[in-house]
Amino acid sequence: xxxxxxxxxxxxxxxxxxxxxxxxxxxxxxxxxxxxxxxxxxxxxxxxxxxxxxxxxxxxxxxxxxxxxxxxxxxxxxxxxxxxxxxxxxxxxxxxxxxxxxxxxxxxxxxxxxxxxxxxxxxxxxxxxxxxxxxxxxxxxxxxxxxxxxxxxxxxxxxxxxxxxxxxxxxxxxxxxxxxxxxxxxxxx
Length: 189
Ligand code: SF4
Ligand code: SF4
What we know:
Oligomer: single chain
Order of helices and strands: HHHHHHHHHHH
Bound molecules: iron/sulfur cluster
């Protein structure tokens, strides 16, 4: 079992998680309700209540390198069950962003899917399913993933050959551009 050095909390990490999520992680008293309701706990390497504890203890590396933050489905069950009204799902989301920024993406295929999805929304204003699939396959080499779903999706027009045309897609691209500029400005500060 890995030993965690509790005498050296990374206070900047705690502050950043609190600021970015708008949640007070210090009010978590480890009741375990979030873990009990988490549908993905069976697949997690660190349960969600333990993630909360590690954040309280300022354990940046242990948290950002965990697989759990990438396997989280953002279902909000933990948030709904928390007796201290902590938006735990939001914290998991923030941790995923921080892990991505720090270059820790322990579940590469999930990151690849997220990247393909966002690229599609930036380009087309909304998701273009076939484009996302093609991009995901190129990024991961997983050619036969979910191929068995195609016969059910095609007749329902869920995999249209061309991107859907929407009004104002250039405004959506602008949002992505603004976020990128904001990140560059933050890095140069
Ligand atoms: S939001 Fe994530 S951590 Fe919370 S219960 Fe759902 S899957 Fe689990
Ligand atoms: S439900 Fe809330 S208080 Fe209980 S362990 Fe999870 S985050 Fe902490």
